[in-house]
Amino acid sequence: MTIPNHIAIIMDGNRRWAEQRKLPALAGHRAGVKSMRSTVEYLGNHGLKYLTVYG
User: Fold this and answer.
1) Which GO biological process categories is it annotated with (predicted)?
2) Tens digit of pLDDT for each residue in 1-55?
């Protein structure tokens, strides 16, 4: 797979994800952080040069 030089991610929906599961909003934010960490690690290991995150 070819990875571009720059990827931008807008983090949205963590609170809604938690509400759908009848969890507190903080649980959704924690799940979002966990997901972002694995995404950053994957992209870094595959040569991504720039990552912009808005959230």
Assistant:
1) polyprenol biosynthetic process
2) 788 999 999 999 999 999 999 999 999 999 999 999 999 999 999 999 999 999 8
- Whole-angstrom distance, CA of residue 7 vs CA of residue 28: 23
Q: Long-range CB contacts (< 8 A, 24+ apart) of 25-30?
A: none
Q: What angle do CA 4, 35, 33 make, to 5 degrees?
A: 115
What single-letter amino acid sits at 23?
L
How far apart, in Å, do the first and last CA atoms of the chain sit? Answer: 27
Cα(17)–Cα(28) distance, rounded to whole angstroms?
A: 6
What phi and psi values does residue 6 have, to the nearest 5 degrees? Answer: -140, 135
